[in-house]
Design a protein that fits this description.
The protein is built from three helices and four strands; from the N terminus they run E-H-H-E-H-E-E. By secondary structure, the protein is of the alpha+beta class. Strand 3 and strand 4 form a beta hairpin.
Length: 103
């Protein structure tokens, strides 16, 4: 018997550690509908970024400015182990936050 109740797990943002700087697309329709999933995948994206590089978290505009929800999630997950900064709002309404993982 299936225990997933017909719900598929969302595709991961990435499945490997990036040994370069990269961008994680967190502005798909499923991210707009599920902030908890967006936050989970944002943390996973940072965890999949090698030391000395950064990941640009591109979040859905429906959630508003990332300072209202994303920054506190990053603080909870990583404390002072990573640094983040707001970069810009995209023309499509999304937001870019750069998270750097120090060496």
């Amino acid at each position: 018997m299936s225990t997933d109740h017909g719900h598929a797990d969302p595709d991961p943002v990435t499945d490997h550690v990036h040994e370069n700087s990269w961008s994680a697309n967190l502005e798909k329709p499923e991210h707009a509908e599920d902030r908890a999933m967006l936050l989970e995948q944002a943390v996973e994206a940072v965890e999949h970024t090698a030391d000395g590089y950064h990941v640009n978290l591109v979040t859905h505009g429906d959630h508003g400015h990332p300072s209202t929800y994303l920054f506190s999630a990053l603080e909870s997950a990583f404390g002072d182990d990573v640094e983040w900064e707001y970069v810009e709002q995209c023309g499509c309404g999304g937001h870019v936050t750069r998270v750097s993982v120090p060496e």
